[in-house]
Amino acid sequence: MNIYTRTGDAGQTSVIGGRVSKDDSRIEAYGTLDELNSFVGQAISLAEIDIFTDMREHLLQIQHELFDCGSDLAFVNVTESRYKVTASMVEILEKWIDAYEEENPALEKFILPGGTQLASVLHVCRTICRRAERRIVTLGERTQINPEVLKYVNRLSDLFFSISRTANAREGVRDIDYERSANVFRTK
Asked: Where do the Cobalamin adenosyltransferase-like domain residues begin and end (predicted)?
C-alpha cells in the first residue's frame, strides 16, 4: 500500500461525500482535532507512573473519541444515523471532571499553565481544544454538523483543565496563581 496518493497535490482533499479545498473550514475543524489528538498521545506517554493509570485510560479513550468527532465533521451530506458522537459521551466527560475535581485544591484565581511536564502538555491540549472548538463553531455556522461534537469538545477542554491540575496535585506540585488575578472562582 502506498501512503501517498497524489490526489491532494492540487490543494483538494477527500471528505465523506465529496472533495473540498485543504483550507476548507471542515478541514480546519477536524485537522485541529487531529493536532489535539497528537498532543493527547504525548500526554499519555508522560503519564507513565502508576498514579496516572486512570488518566492514561481516559486519555486513550479520548483519542478514539477525537477520531469519532473528526469522522462526524467529515460528512458533506449530514446523516444523523451515521454519527458516532453522542450525548452520553459528553456525560461521561462530566463524570470524569467531577471525579478529578475532587482531588484538586480549591481554586480562587486564574492559574498559569504549567507545573509538571504532564500538566503542561495537558494545558497545551486544553488550548488546542479551545481552538478546535472555535473552528467547529465556524463550520457549524456554514453548514449543518452534529451538535454533540461541539458539546463534546467544549466539555473536553474543561476536562483538560481539571486533569492538568490533578496531574500537578498527584505529584505534589502547586498550581501558580496568576498574580494579578482577582478572586474569580467560588471556593467549595
From this structure: 3-166
> What is d(CA 35, CA 125) in angstroms, rounded to the nearest whole number?
9
Segment (H or E) for 92:
helix 87-103
> By C-alpha distance, which of 69, 66, 62 is closest to 84?
69
Q: What distances in angstroms separate CA 141 from CA 27, 112, 147, one per listed residue? A: 15, 32, 11
The pTM for the full model equals 0.92
What is the rounded end-to-end Cα distance, in angstroms, of the chain? 56
Nearest residue to 171 via CA among 135, 120, 127, 132: 120
Q: What is the CATH T-level fold of the domain 17-170, as seen in this structure?
A: Hypothetical Protein Ta1238; Chain: A; (1.20.1200)
Mean pLDDT value across residues 67-80: 84
Instruction: Count CA atoms within 13 Å of residue 94 on its CB side.
Output: 7
Phi, psi of 69 (to 5 degrees): -60, -50
Cell of 68: 469519532
pLDDT the model gives residue 105: 95
